Amino acid sequence: MSGNVQLLTDTLAAAKAEGRSALIAYLPAGFPTVDGGIEAIKAALDGGADVVEVGLPHSDPVLDGPVIQTADDIALRGGVRIADVMRTVRETHQATGKPILVMTYWNPIDRYGVERFTAELAEAGGAGCILPDLPVQESALWREHAEKHGLATVFVVAPSSKDKRLAEITAAGSGFVYAASLMGVTGTRESVGTQAQNLVERTRATTELPVCVGLGVSNAAQAAEVAGFADGVIVGSAFVKRMLDAPDDAAGVEAVRALAGELARGVRRQA
Length: 271
What we know:
The protein has helices spanning about 5-15, 35-45, 65-75, 80-95, 105-110, 115-125, 140-150, 165-170, 195-205, 220-225, 235-245, 250-270; strands at about 20-30, 50-55, 100-105, 130, 150-155, 155, 175-180, 210-215, 230-235. It is of the alpha/beta class. The N and C termini lie far apart (about 35 Å). A nine-stranded parallel beta sheet has the order 5-4-3-2-1-9-8-7-6.
């Protein structure tokens, strides 16, 4: 294992050694601006997040709910480009020393060029990619280049995934497994539910990789609940919503920092 995938592995292992789940925050690049997005990500990490997923804004984010779609729309209207995503990764990693992943749909990478994308992401200090819509059976080219550049390939599993399929997905992935806690799009939920715990148990039966749960966690109590059974707690929409609701960008950054602190305390007081 080389490059920053090792940093990701070590970070998740360190959280486990402390007897807690890792806190993984998601924020889109270019939202509210490229500079503002960088400040928000640094605030999430300073506030207590262990890892950040930088979203690559997409015009048709089929798995994202209205909150993240709104943020993506703002970023795209602001003219965000893949170069801005790479800059976001570079500057946040350099400032914090923490692992930074990119979460993206496959189409932008395919258009940009797999070799170019993986080389630039590794050069920027990125730890890897989460690829929610890339089927494992079509991922060989990506995985070849990701491995060459020391990048993790994080695939998403869902409650609907059959056990045989889970085994195929986890065998192909690296870094960690992203377990979507429920069917449907991203967004905050009233409860995370038992589906997530069942999915984590089924996924763990197929792999030694950490299993991190996303979709629906928005507060410290939910973070504590998920931390009781998962290796990592992934929070996205709640961070984006804090920024959308803030009166100005500076207040948005402070709201992100505060939420990261609340969630970091949540993953440390496991339900």
